[in-house]
Amino acid sequence: MRRARSKLTLNSSDELAETEYKESWNQLIKLKRTCKNGIKGIKESLHVRNTNPQESIYWKGATTIKERIQEISREDSPVKLVLRKIIKTLELLAESQAQFEKQILDIVDNGCVSEFINKDFSRLENEKNQFKKLTREKENCESRLGKEREKRRQTQADPDFYEGHKEKEEKLEEDLEQVKKDLVSAEDKFSASLYTALSQENALAKNFEDYALKLEESIGNFKEKVEGIIPQIARAIDESPIKPVFGESLEKHLSSYQIGIARPLDYAVRALQDHTDEEGLFRISPGLLQLKKVKAQLDAGLPYQKLEESLRDPHVSSGLIKCYLRELPEPLFGATFVDDWSAIEKIPNNNIRLEHIKILIDRLPEANKNNIAFLFQFLKKLVAKSELNKMTPDNINIVITPNLLWTTGHDRSWGLTRTVRTMLTHVDDIFPENMIHNEEEQPFSPSFEGDLT
User: Fold this and answer.
1) Does the structure show a pLDDT above 50 at 447?
2) How far is CA 201 from the centre of its chain?
């Protein structure tokens, strides 16, 4: 049963007081400011003057962007990297100002950066304010309930007054319980939106890249000076570790974070280590808001320590594994190996089937092989406690196999019943190297600095 008390409280200055949200909110404000300044700087560069470079509007635009860009402390921030490239572009254009009399095509204000600044952020503020409002309502209900209890205690000698106060007290208790439920829901909604917004930084960077592409297209006589900037921007975004986890190819995800095991699998298995005897794993669906929140936290690049509370519910962790596998662009068992797996499934002899599985596993890309080993070594632990958790090989087949392999048409109706059962029975033989160990996290984690404003 989920606790009704909210993790997020309000202090006397009416600010978010819980460290996780305060830091994340503060980082989002800085990201908004930087993006807003980026748009402002770009617009200031749209009008041409026949002046020396340092007096040109292009130079002024570059200077404006510089004023705020340092607020994002991470050097690997794609927004920061892209804006730096844009600064360089603007300075190059300023140097060619004498030959440039053409006005740059105005930038369209309907991109995701504008959406983030003008709509998404306002919606987030409303959700934050709703959360604050419910927190105050909860405190008010608790205060009124305390007073009503004291009145009832003082009127014990008078049955009529005593019963009247008792009815009021019961009504206030019902109101308080409802406010607590609404408060938890408001917190989940706000936190999911907050981490979702943080996870969109890569998309914001792409919006700025669109500006650079438009700049190259519009200024034909400046093309020579713009060339070389665009590939650097694309490379900065592509190589940035700040990118979504879900829907990303396995190899790109592992490369971005310089890890061997996909973060959703790694984090979920860590959280489930003490819950392998839990009945209903992979079968009981987690709350949608809870799962959305965890996905957003992972997409935002948060380290495991900041997800521990979210992953406390074992059904959220097991649901996270299925969700990640299901949203991979290509199945974990390999899109080009569908026919091979199908052929193995048709082998009637278990020992022969096992040998063919081992051969095929060795043919898989290293990333797939390691993550399959990690997953099946964990599933083996579940099978070992099947008397408690009811996760027999057959049940694992039902809930996991459709997320391991599908055809190009995303047909998940056929399974690998015998194959998966063989793999679960011979995990140590197929994967002799232990993959389940908590390595020290090396990938980036967002740094949140400053006071909440």
Assistant:
1) no
2) 11
The separation between the first and the last C-alpha atoms of the chain, rounded to the nearest angstrom, is: 35
What is the distance between the alpha carbons of residues 108 and 213, in angstroms, rounded to a whole number? 13
Instruction: Quickly count: other Cβ atoms within 10 Å of residue 402's Cβ.
Output: 19
Question: In this structure, are residues 135 and 6 in contact, taking their beta carbons and an 8 Å threshold?
Answer: yes
| Whole-angstrom distance, CA of residue 385 vs CA of residue 393 | 11
What's the angle, vertex CA 188, arms to CA 399 and CA 312, rounded to 5?
Answer: 50
- The residue assigned the tokens 């019963």 is 163
Helices (H) and strands (E) in the chain, counts: 20, 0
pTM for the whole structure:
0.57
DSSP characters over 328-361: SSS-TT-GGGHHHHHHHHT---HHHHHHHHHHHH
Is residue 194 within 8 A of residue 25, CB to CB? The reply is yes
Q: How many CB atoms lie within 10 A of CB 86?
A: 25
Coil, strand, or helix at residue 401? helix
Write out the two tokens for 292: 């959305």
Residues with Cβ within 8 Å of residue 208, at least 6 apart in sequence: 38, 42, 79, 82, 83, 86, 113
Largest CA distance in the chain: 96
Q: Is the pLDDT of residue 379 over 90?
A: yes
- Is residue 324 within 8 Å of 316, Cβ to Cβ? no
Categorise residue 20: left if φ over 0, alpha if ψ from -120 to 50, beta otherwise. Answer: alpha
The residue among 326 and 71 whose pLDDT is bigger is 326
Distance, CA of 182 to chain centre: 24
208 three-state secondary structure: helix
Q: Are 8 and 133 in contact (CB under 8 A)?
A: no
Q: What torsion do the CA atoms of 305, 306, 312, 318 make, to the nearest 10 degrees?
A: -90
Nearest to 262 by CA among 270, 278, 251: 251
Q: For residue 284, what is the DSSP state? A: S
Residue pair 230/208 in contact by the 8 Å Cβ criterion = no
5-46: pLDDT as tens digits: 444 444 433 455 455 678 888 888 898 899 888 878 776 765
Rounded Cα gap, residues 452 and 22, in angstroms: 6
Give the tens place of pLDDT for each residue, 49-75: 455 677 777 888 888 888 888 888 777
Give the C-alpha separation, 203 to 210, whole Å. Answer: 11
Q: Tokens for 390, please give them.
A: 């009811």
